[in-house]
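Ticket 4471: requesting a sanity check on a complex prediction with pyridoxal-5'-phosphate. Repro inputs:
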Amino acid sequence: MNLPIKNIISILNANFEGNSDNAIFDNISIDSRSFQNNQKTLFFALVGTNHDAHLYIEELILKGVKNFVVTHVPEKLKDKANFIIVENTLVALQKFASYYRSLFHFPIIGITGSNGKTIVKEWLNFLLSPDYNIIRSPKSYNSQVGVPLSVISINENHNFGIFEAGISTINEMENLQEIIKPTIGILTNIGSAHDEGFADISQKIKEKLKLFSEVDVLILHKNKTIEVFLDPKIKTFTWSTTDKTAHVFFQKKTFNDYSVLNITHQNQCFKIKIPFIDEASVENSMHCILTMLYLNYDLNTIENRVSQLFPVEMRLKVKKGINNCTLIDDSYSSDFQSLKIALDFLENQKQHLKKTLILSDIFQSGLENDDLYSRVSQLIVSNKIGRVICIGETISKYKTKFPNATSFNLTEQFIEAFDTLEFANETILIKGSRHFEFEKIVSLLEEKTHETVLEINLNAISHNLNYYKSKLNPKTKLMVMVKAFGYGSGGFEIAKLLSHHKVDYLGVAFADEGIELRKQGIELPIMVLNPEMTSFQSIIQYKLEPEIYSIRGLKAFIKIAEQKQLISYPIHIKLNTGMNRLGFDTEMLPESISIVKKNKTIEIKSILSHLASSDVAADKDFTLKQIHDFEKDANFITQNLGIHPILHISNTSGISNFPQAQFDMVRLGIGLYGISNNETETKNLETVGTLKSVISQIRNIDAGESVGYSRKFMAEKPTKVATIPIGYADGISRAWGNGLGYVLINNQKASIIGSICMDMLMVDVTKINCFEGNEVILFGKNLSVSKIAQMTNTISYEILTSVSHRVKRVFYRE
Ligand SMILES: *Cc1c(COP(=O)(O)O)cnc(C)c1O
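Returned structure tokens:
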């Protein structure tokens, strides 16, 4: 892409204010934080319910960005850059993408459906890449923003496109159709449940089918529910396992770890072996096989390539590495688009000053190697990567283009040289194309701990954050509680993500939690809920802000502030309004005010209180009284001192149940981690944590034998028992044992038998087809923390924060 601004002004029907409409741009950005923004970037300032990128334009101009698409020109920035002024910047981005798409004329596959979009896209890319230069959506970029960004990455050398489209409600697909303009459509499947965003399943089907309004052919599973909605003018190419009138008919035979498909197409029969046995993978491969048949591939090629399909790992994982390194594992793909995404992710999750990239050859970028590796080098330099390790014959030839580079032709050679490469105290991004088998590198670099992990979905955290933000008034500030190691989910990584989302404050319980975050480079303001007096010195040293809740604490803090000759040091005043835990009572206010009045060393940054029962409907009157008393006492202070601090009282349930009590800020806690005390609200949240382990051993016992300590389980019949290496010392309450609780193995319930031990527990797997080494889910999406809490008579907070530190946390982004 190399376009003058002029062109797009007319395409977008926009107004222009600026120095030169001849300026050329060659890339598009919507992320102000990306290091990839430069003078040739055209920045679209998107506006969301609680996010306005116009706020970052000034900062971007300082970084050299010159061209912006905006809804208005910020007052003081007139003449400082080129501004293309439109009514709605997202609509403008989409319009531009559909114009850009119209410049290219090659086959484009558009995929939608409830599941399998990304896998089918990745598989087709693998199956067709020997013959085409393919552009595809990176990761699962399939939204109203992701689709235009994917399409804008097409370049002159591509001759085939594969894009996925995902929608969450009505009136979204038409936009995506305009942008993708697919010539070949694939409908993967339609889940039977209807999503929140649709009135019913037929509305959902009709909406999805809009992607295919102009395709030459639509590939799909022959299915009566969908057929009735299909426009008869659209040519279909269908498969079925039951209906012989489908164009392709097939039957499946399953073996231990593979399936054989017997396929009939145009009176020809043939067999294809695929390395999967599960239903979903078989369906996904059928869509791929039909696409290849449609593209006139011969049977040998189809058989040969399909037999090499592989599980797709789309997640970017953050792991703990050896020698205090942090790994970002993206070891299954290396294409130019996903490299850009991974580098942005590296920047927002980097945990050390040093950044290293391990990168393999990059395939099918659509670019000549010289051009490709020059661009890769620009990316690497602009992202300030300190050292690059190149693996592969091609990339090794370009090693001089990269900072501080070492090169190896083969992964094995890297492994041999591993000890000389000295990895320590750095963040390492590992990004390689599949056949370089970078998982071997990850396994060398990964800190070895045991097999139990708590996986934290960073996308889900962003989703939940945005969900609660959407409930706030535009001016309401947001403090997020990351106390107790981010409710057990990880302190630093979550704080880092929250910095990225620019929340206003973080809240921790004790000073050392705040100090830990500061040491790791978190710069957001941090309030300490329970600062012990012994920690005041270090609170000041690390620029933490104490919550002061008593006259004794106030005097002690002022004394230190005076010794240190501080000026206006921010403190937070906590009022007791009925929780009766910490805080000033009403009668203490006159004295406190007189202490603070003439004191210049401190500044009351905020006044807060805490709701005791915001989640309990029966206590509504009590909560309303707390809110009322808070307002009264806070006003008393502000009026007497003539100050305007931030007022805040609501926690998660307060945000949901008392929207009138947002004041100037709210304090979000448990909701961020995907848990709400309200069932309907829970549906809008995404699961953040999944606690996983594996089966260590399986044995069969006879009737009359017992399991575990004190022989609490007695087998009444022959029983297959699996042992899982996680126990009460890892945070699994003993109350969850002895037949009450269960775990999930292959998504089936396995009841916990006998007492839970310190480091292990045993489950009944008599009816479950499973093997030693199989994955076990202790909690997650289909076995919620709330449910366990309810059944063991505790609260979700306790379960989340009890997962012990010896359980490794793995963070990932989809
Ligand atoms: C923990 C805490 C919160 C957050 O509460 P949630 O119920 O998790 O939202 C807010 N304010 C204070 C003072 C807290 O201690």
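Notes from triage: Residues 43 and 68 are 5 Å apart (CA to CA). Leaving this open until the requester confirms.
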